[in-house]
Amino acid sequence: MRFILIDRITGWEPGKQAEATKNVTFSEDFFDDHFPLKPIMPGVLILEGLAEIAGLLLEETVRVQQGRNIKALLSIIEKAKFRNFVTPGDSLVYQATIASINDMAGRMRGVVLRDNRQIADAMLVFTLHEIDNPRLDLRRSELLKFWLEQKHE
User: What is the pLDDT of residue 27?
Assistant: First the structure.
């Protein structure tokens, strides 16, 4: 299973906030088992999409503000709340805002919307790790470039 659960970055302001979308389709692998005849997107995958945009924002913020090339690894999910189900055909909007950053970690506020209504939210804490693998850095750069280019189409 792949863990790229955002389709497009729609807002991008390093140091402040980012927004991304995910169009949920019936062909997603997880719907086979979750649940037969009543497909519901697992809450952990809703949070994964939120963590992906939050982590990207945090990484780029640290790169721009501190000149450090880091990978943000999700370490704590605080106060996660789910207010409704996500089913095939839904379009999600992930919003991430920086709450705080220090040399070792970053704390992000995250909200998930569907049809302009909040369906989930959480505080996400990431630990920051120096990137020493050029392939990892290249892959992240390629994905970010792809998503940001789509934003302007």
Answer: 86
Tell me the per-residue pLDDT of 27-43, one tens digit each, with 9 for 90 and over.
888 888 888 889 999 99
Question: Is the distance from CB of 30 to CB of 106 less than 8 angstroms?
Answer: no
Tell me the DSSP string of 122-133. EEEEEEEEE---
Architecture of domain 8-144: Roll (3.10)
Cβ atoms of 99 and 31 within 8 Å: the answer is no
Residue 34 structure tokens: 């979750």
Residue 152 is among the residues annotated as catalytic for this protein: no
Alpha-carbon distances, residue 12 vs 36, 39, 126 (angstroms): 37, 31, 19
The one catalytic residue in 10, 28, 34, 88 is 34
Residues lower than pLDDT 50 in the chain: 1
